[in-house]
Design a protein that fits this description.
The protein is built from 5 helices and 5 strands. It is of the alpha/beta class and 149 residues long. Strands 1-5-4-3-2 form a 5-stranded mixed β-sheet. A hairpin with a 2-residue loop joins strand 4 and strand 5. It is elongated, with a radius of gyration of 16 Å.
Amino acid sequence: MGASGWSYRTAYRGDIREAVESLQREVFAAGDYYWPYEFYDHLPSKARPGSVDELWQDELAQEEGTHSILDVETVIGAGDSDEHGTIRPLSAAEMREHFDTDRPTPETFDRAAEAGTLPDLTPRWSAVCMPLHIGGAPAQIAFWGYSGD
């Protein structure tokens, strides 16, 4: 399928891992992810999996990914090296560099996402995140990454 970018916003819960897990449950339940058997005409029809574990047992899904937040799983620190499957919070310096503030708002994020200008800061199969502020306090958290080759 090739590489594709994805992005999400969800409520800020104070814990990145909790936000990721909640968002992943929502994305999976809504079926808002790439399932290769619905994309390629030459593949046999195959029902979507009933669980995330079942999803990752499928060899083709392992190879192509879901092109969604389901493709990342390990939260690392802002100063850690991005690796396959990791989610890294942006540092304050990165937020200032790419968003001109260390307290971006939901509108700041939406403008960048809609314009296709979210910075590509990680290798494929990984993601970054940042809190989004309303009234000066974190209210949401944004995630974005790129899946595929």
